Design the sequence.
């Protein structure tokens, strides 16, 4: 045979990790559950905040679209208002003129349905947020700063002014 001696390696003792005890497993499961619960709660809060933001944006978009559409109708309503104020008595007796009144009423109903309301003016204190003073005139009936006449109606939806009222203020 050969003169070579085979060296055999001694088996090294490998220590196998000891399995975790039940208490350690329970503590690890509790830690995992707490981490999962915290992540779930955070995700739920983020989702709720995102939903609130989207609802707010949808409301703002709706209000803007409503205001834009209404602002296009307002000159037509103004024309109707001026026509009804200056109509001769002979014309106001005709049945077709009553049809015009109904159209005017429908237009105002559309505005009401969209929660668009006229801004109160006559007898109210002047408010630069909703009124635009065009004239100032002396008045014995009203104190200074009170609106005595409305020259053009103003409109708002909620707290948002679509068009300020053009007014005459007592001096």
Sequence:
């Amino acid at each position: 045979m050969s003169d070579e001696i085979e060296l055999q390696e001694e088996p090294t003792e490998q220590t196998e990790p000891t399995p975790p005890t039940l208490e350690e497993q329970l503590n690890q499961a509790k830690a995992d559950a707490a981490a999962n619960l915290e992540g779930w709660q955070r995700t739920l809060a983020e989702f709720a905040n995102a939903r609130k933001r989207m609802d707010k944006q949808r409301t703002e978009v709706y209000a803007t679209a409503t205001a834009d559409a209404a602002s296009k109708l307002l000159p037509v309503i103004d024309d109707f208002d001026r026509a009804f104020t200056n109509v001769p008595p002979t014309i106001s007796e005709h049945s077709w003129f009553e049809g015009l009144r109904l159209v005017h009423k429908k237009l105002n109903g559309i505005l009401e349905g969209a929660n668009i309301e006229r801004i109160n003016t006559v007898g109210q204190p002047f408010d630069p947020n909703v009124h635009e003073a065009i004239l100032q005139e002396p008045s014995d009936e009203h104190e200074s700063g009170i609106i005595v006449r409305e020259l053009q109606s103003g409109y708002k939806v909620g707290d948002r002014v679509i068009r300020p009222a053009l007014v005459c203020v007592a001096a």
Summary: The mean pLDDT is 89. The longest helix spans residues 22-85. Residues 121 and 147 are 6 Å apart (CA to CA).
